Amino acid sequence: MARDTSVPRRRVLMTGVAAIPFLVSSRAMAGGSRVRAADESAATLVDAAVGTVMMQARPAAVEIEPARTAVIVVDMQNDFGAKGGMFERAGIDISMIQRAVAPTARALASARAAGIRVIYLKMGYRPDLSDLGAPESVNRVRHLRMNVGQAITAPDGRQSRILVRDTWNTDILPELTPQAADVVLYKTRFSGFYETDLHATLRRFGTRHLIVTGCTTSICVESTVRDAMFRDYLPVVLEDCTNEPIGYGLPRSNHDASLLATEVLFGWVSSADHFAAAVSA
Description:
By secondary structure, the protein is α/β, with parallel strands linked by helices. The protein has one domain: 3-Layer(aba) Sandwich (Rossmann fold), CATH 3.40.50.850. It is built from ten helices and twelve strands. The strands form four sheets. Strands 9-6-5-10-11-12 form a six-stranded parallel beta sheet, with helices on both faces. A two-stranded antiparallel sheet has the order 1-2. Helix 5 (101-113) runs parallel beside helix 10 (272-280). The longest helix is centred in the C-terminal third of the chain and has 14 residues, at 217-230. It starts with 9 loop residues before the first strand and ends with a helix. The model is unreliable at 1-49 (pLDDT under 50).
């Protein structure tokens, strides 16, 4: 996008953001040279011409354009994060997923206030399970072990089915209920890009930057982030808005490993508070 050099750059201070040694934009990561001294590192740099802000992140601050940004909410649905859902019925601890709900709600509020689009991804299969995979496929075999398709009575008394579309099980957690302007897409594999309209939707909106939240970090979140990076999107994972049970409580969990892989190779890692501070500017 061409920059109007006749419009001066404004600096808007981010309050409550710890100073970091330097700020590097996404363009600088790709070979540019914008660097700011340590005494300016607590500032969000806002380009009045193209509408960009700097968000504190790892491995370095990242420049985003709110008008070309979307927040992706991955699988924050009853089957994974609610009592009575698939995970909880299987005896899987969901407490860490539930702890990601409040930060995610804050991030969504910040995004909507800034006019940033929100896109929900939901794991869910057709009632006949025809999209679960071939008879011996890993996706079908492993999901059937988790009783996908089984009829249950939901906690609210409704008849429902595990991981089947348009049931209580695949409803978004009530604290994160989609709003009228949001986009909601079903997916049938771990990546949100696999045989879905996500890529076409993002292209239609001119999206370049993805703020990624959801569960579980090393499975559906990381799969979606990898595919986003392969398509040249710029993904930022909000670490307090993601989590997962695998390895939880160990010295290093799968959640930690996925965040490390993201900040080293796939994109950036930030937080709900840093995202809010950036877009509020």
